[in-house]
Amino acid sequence: MLVSSKILGGSRTSVTLKTTLRFNSSSTSALAYKALHHRKKQPRLPTLDTPNWSAQGAVSSILYETPLPSKSPKKQHILNCLVQNEPGVLSLVSGILAARGFNIDSLVVCNTDVKDLSRMTIILKGQAMVIEQAIKQIEDLVPVFAVLDYSNAEIIKRELLLTRVSLLGPEYFQDFIKQHEISIEAEETLSELDNKYHPKNLTPSEMLRIKNSYLTALQTLTKQFGGKIVDISNKNCIIELTGKPERITNFLKLIKPFGILEVARSGMMALPRTPLSEGEMEEEDTAVDIGVDLSDLPPG
Fold it and tell me: 19: pLDDT confidence band, cut at 50, 70 and 90?
């Protein structure tokens, strides 16, 4: 920071402030950014002399003036953190949330098109007051540029799902689970699965017809939800689906009877919607007032 001034006739006439900020791979660039765009600090509260308390008076003051725990319900909060791309940032942010007792439901970290800048999308549940305090502590970290709270904003939410589903029916799936349990009783319960509908007791042609019917049903469900089948084998298939987290959860419930062998979810990513002009917003509100998000409705 370079400050130059001119003094004519004993009085200062102009002051020129020139600031140069260069971003590099060092975490001090985030610190310099926050120093340049610092928020206005609130004035300090007036200080009072410490009163002469007695033991009984101090205890009574602590008991009756301590606020009660907040009974406000916990809600989902979506935090978007812009951080410096360097080692150790994730541990710093997660350490602050862990110290306050937050369980992170989802965490997605990815690079951006800007060099040395990463975006962290954190999904957690908690009370608004505690979340606000955690946001302030995260913003005070050196490698953090800013923290955005999308909890009350109109956002686009997306999540990627990869799941492996059985093509041999639920009997094969239950048999598969029992064989991987280290228990003596598991071997005894395998005999209960030996019925005429079990894949081991079917002819090859009947097995092919069952596989084809199961695969057709899975393709229909996947198409209705906007996904696709990316891999098919003799015993299972892999389905890829992108959508809102609630929609993916509903899809998993529908295909659960087929026998889900494996599930991988990427975690939620979010970006805020771009607001329209005031005139266009008013026309849209008066023309359409549905009140229901069509993406939450079942397919069909």
Answer: very low
| Other Cβ atoms closer than 10 A to 211 | 19
Tokens linked to 101: 């007792």
CB atoms inside a 10 Å sphere around CB 205: 8
**22-26, 66-70, 73-77, 135-139: range with highest mean pLDDT:** 135-139
Distances (CA, A) of 251 to 91, 107, 246: 33, 22, 9
CA distances from 34 to 79, 85, 170, 198, 256 (A): 18, 16, 57, 65, 49
Look up residue 104 and give its amino acid.
I
- pLDDT digits over 200-217, tens only? 666 777 778 888 888 999
**Count of CA atoms in the C-beta half-sphere (13 A) of 51:** 6
Question: For residue 94, what are its two tokens?
Answer: 């997660």
Write down the pLDDT at residue 227: 94
Q: In this predicted structure, what is the pLDDT of residue 255?
A: 92
The Cβ-side half-sphere exposure at 160, using a 13 Å CA radius, reads 6
Contact 252, 265 (CB under 8 A): no
Whole-model pTM: value is: 0.64
Q: How far apart are CA 84 and CA 257, in angstroms?
A: 45
Report the C-alpha gap between 156 and 242 in whole angstroms.
12
Residue whose entry in the numeric block shows the structure tokens 């097995």: 207
Give the SS3 label for residue 201.
Answer: helix
- Mean pLDDT lowest for which of 16-20, 139-143, 209-213, 232-236? 16-20
Distance from C-alpha of 68 to C-alpha of 102, rounded to nearest angstrom: 20
Helix 128-139 and helix 89-99, axial crossing angle in degrees, nearest 10: 150
